[in-house]
Amino acid sequence: MNLSYFDFAFIGGDMRQIYMANDLLNQNYSVIAYGLDDPLLDSRCKRSPSFAEAMNTSQIIITPIPVSKDGMHIVSIHPQSDLTIGNLCNLLTAKHKLFGGVLPGDLKNHCDILNICYQDLMKQEEITLYNTIATAEGTIAEAILNSTINLHDSSCLILGFGRCARTLAEKLKGLCSSVTVAARSPMALSAAYAASYNTVNLSQLEEKIEEYDYIFNTIPALVLSKELLEKTRQNVVIIDIASAPGGIDFNYAKEIHRNAKLCLGLPGKYAPESSALALNNHILSNIRKK
């Protein structure tokens, strides 16, 4: 059987990978996909009948962000029973170059042993920084959807002051919110103060927590405990964008009727096309350098 060869193979994915494939096709690259189908996917994209064919007909393999949520199955909007990390490992060869986000340790170890070139897109600083834009905008969208009051002139608390928190604070400030940053690090508190935000040390949060209409958590560890949740306003909106399981006692929040929501994957949900273009720019730049 004669097989055509393609510039890129997409294995699984969400709407970001749909837009990535379409953008590459518009740049006259050839694309094959497995476990990725949607009415929005360009008809010029070859829908592979098998995992093996997609892998065997392209050197550049693009996987989702994250590649897997359970460490076993590859994320896909068009799930296939054989879309697993194990099968991906079995089909990868030294000719391949693999791109994906939050690559599982087993997958990276396999690539290292077989000398397979790979890149974790979420370890790339420019992508991480660009991602904060869509994350911040998605966070604000979730806050608006879950609240009955304006962000304008509201009192907002941001827990942490890393990359996502900084972009979120800037966007909230632009919407005329009063923004307070809570952190432990003196450096983070100083940076927040220098950017003209109110600040509070996390150790003193109990004294201030009842003042806020919105609370945004970016810290991937338990921050809002039962004791702190009890002191929040009854109508507070709490949006957690930290890595699962987040930094909030969600069971207790539900028990005391607080509106708390863990919001993951916001770039893929709210800005898949913009995110796709940024990812493609990085991947194409990386390939051309080689």
UniProtKB/TrEMBL annotation:
Q: Which domain of life is it from?
A: Bacteria
InterPro entries in the record = DpaA_N, NAD(P)-bd_dom_sf, Shikm_DH/Glu-tRNA_Rdtase
List each copy of the Quinate/shikimate 5-dehydrogenase/glutamyl-tRNA reductase domain by range: 143-243
Q: Could you tell me which residue ranges the Dipicolinate synthase subunit A N-terminal domain spans?
A: 8-122
Q: Which Gene3D superfamilies match?
A: NAD(P)-binding Rossmann-like Domain (3.40.50.720)
Q: What is this protein called?
A: Dipicolinate synthase subunit A
From which organism does this entry originate?
Answer: Anaerocolumna aminovalerica
